[in-house]
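We modelled the chain as a single entity of 235 amino acids. Its sequence is:
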Amino acid sequence: MKEEDSFPICDKCAPESGSIFRYLNPAELELLNYRKDFRKFRRGSVLYREGSRISGFYCVHSGVIKVYKTGFDGKEQIIRFAKTGDIIAYRSVLSSEAACTTAKVIADSRVCFIPADILISFIKSNPVFAHELLKLACHELGEANTFITDIAQKTVRERLAEILLYLVRDFGLDDNDYLRISLTREEIANIIGTATESVIRLLSEFKNDGFVELQGRRIRILDTRALENISNLLV
């Protein structure tokens, strides 16, 4: 068993982080602790690349990892941000296919790498875990469907307001109402599928309208209700 002062222990970490591993029984958690590989990554590190064959998947202990696809022109399309408790690359493990995305660290991260056979064994032996994993995959598919609809039907202004609200939901605000995640303007553009220049212009408009305040990469949310109205979200 790995030492607790060096490696996060799953039976403690899983309930605190809300990871899917909280549905494992004590024996399965012990096996997970024994087989996983704890790794540290600095900002800019790449965990895996699109098209590569991977022998396992990752659970995020701390930090932020962006998961994205690369277009024919080399432009990134950010699919999601993985944070504490999230798992990534598990769908490639389940399908036995090459990775369909790239995972890159945007805030220093500590992650656990878990061999593929462990996930498969838990699915076969633990129906509750298998059901929760299926629900997680369906939820992510639903979010992908929503994104496709937004790209087709919403303006860039609406999508920007919506993404700001999602970032508030997923990462929260600090005591001064700044987003707890710091993204470049290019990264924001790569989430909503537009040019960086459009994001810069629209954020400036939001600032002039009193919806946000900007300080370098940091974005302070001043008027959530206005962003909800712009985004046409059902809240």
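As a brief sanity check on the tokenised model: The longest strand covers residues 56-70. The CA atoms of residues 106 and 164 lie 17 Å apart.
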